[in-house]
Amino acid sequence: MLLQKMLESAGFLVTKAQSVLDAMDILKDNVPDLIISDLEMDQLDGFEFKEILLSSEKYQNIPFLFLTAHNKEVFIEKGLSLKAIDYIPKGIPKEQLIAKINNILDTVKDQKDQSVNELKMVADRLNLKNVPTKNLKLKNFQIEIFHQTFQNHPGGDFIDLIRIDDRFTFLVLGDVMGKKWGAWFFSFTFLSYIRSAIRLCVFDGNLSVAKIMQRINQVIHVDDFLDDIYSTLSLVLIDDEKGEITYSGASDLPLLKYQTETNKIEQYKSKGLLLGFFENGNFNEQNISTIANDQLFLLSDGVIDYEANGVKKTDINLFINQLETLLSANKTFDEITAGIFNKEKYQVDDCSLIQIKRI
């Protein structure tokens, strides 16, 4: 209890477990930046706790400190052999404890930043991008893209603009389940399948977004490489000649349409399942007419996810209310994203927002 108060008074958010089993339950929902563990505990001791963590890919790299009254070399050697970072003695002065923890966390952060920078350099050399770097202006539509990574790490969101000819353009927004580099890696496989399916269907004279979604889904469903890897997808076909939008989705968030005449947002919800989950994805398509100044939005779940008091929350209605307020004030897309995705909102995932504006 004293240790917990010392850490909390220094600004750390502390979660206390009464036993190893209790700690494992907590870890299911909350992976910490650092674990401090007693060596001697009932049922399972600190060494056994560390061995359990080492056997899990999810937990094995969490920085780990032993808290103990023992200073025997045999205990120290065993702990270090289990990849514990250090021992801290019970009764350590508060200033030394805080300094030690801050040094450990700073070192871990520096190592992660170095690894991320190295991966980014490789990705840049290979020209690997899953989000366009430029917006697109058509005859009757303006498409603008906002994408913000989570903690400067590439994630599972992917976007593509596929222009077939002067009349038809496909817009793709997907989100691979998972976090950071793992999801980012698989996003290129999904993008490859999606691009190929769209091109093949177009060559066959098929412009139905629901049928294209089913073609994509069938291929992904039978790919062993993507076993247990799933993705959402929003697929939009823009008819620049007629000023019409056709939309289909796979477990995505609703397409939002703002009408200047009413200053209200209408939701278009898809029925499709996650890509690859079943052989038949049950996809439907919706035709959406537009007039000048109508604005449509596609979004990933990072847009509506946020953290409050250490708890992750999801609220699409909050986002819609914010968006309606900004749009009714005639804010530009840049002003909208600056107003919604500010430093006051604690980001918990990568965010993607796409605006399709009728001009």
UniProtKB/TrEMBL annotation:
Sorted UniProt keywords: Hydrolase, Phosphoprotein
Residues annotated with 4-aspartylphosphate modification: D38
InterPro entries: Bact_Sigma-Reg, CheY-like_superfamily, PPM-type-like_dom_sf, PPM-type_phosphatase-like_dom, Sig_transdc_resp-reg_receiver
MF (Gene Ontology): phosphatase activity
SUPFAM superfamilies, sorted: CheY-like (SSF52172), PP2C-like (SSF81606)
Residues of the Response regulatory domain: 1-105
GO terms classed as biological process: phosphorelay signal transduction system
Domain of life assignment: Bacteria
PANTHER family for the chain: STAGE II SPORULATION PROTEIN E, STAGE II SPORULATION PROTEIN E-RELATED
Name by which UniProt lists this protein: Response regulator receiver protein
Protein source organism: Pedobacter psychrophilus
